[in-house]
Fold this sequence. Notes:
mainly alpha, globular, disordered C terminus
Amino acid sequence: MTYHYLMDLALILLSTKVLGILTKRIQMPQVVGALVAGLILGPAMLNVLSETEFLTQLSELGVIVLMFSAGMGTDIQELKHSGKAGFLVALLGVIVPLVLGTGLAMFADRTGMIETSGFLEDVFVGTILTATSVSITVETLKEIGKLDTKVGNTILAAALIDDVLGLIALTIVSSLSGGQDSIASSSR
């Protein structure tokens, strides 16, 4: 019986803790240290750890626990009060990357940097860029003690709305592609 997953877990915990402390010392969120640890130990650099079923399940569990704890610490009334501001920030957070990403994909397609089969795929690329990372936002706000403030709630509301709008846009673009053999249909 092998226990490679214990070594993987030990490496993850040790590297994220050490790099989290280092990033905190240079006044950056500890989550940056965790991301850097994954970058260094993963396939992008040292390839010490690769994606396994164990790591995939562990990461899903981690996100669930993080989102659950953020939900427990969120004041619904404050979230409602930040509704208009949060919605406007989220709307811009969807529109800007969607338009710029689509434009960039169109430019890259026309200059030969990438090859897409048309406008829908260009829009699909733009839509993908609308995604935010609510878990990183929550962790950073929690670390700096701003999660339960008006500003924190506005940011959290914007991130949540941004993700919902992004998923709606992705669903629409994917359904418009109809079964074409394209980026949009191959990513489902």
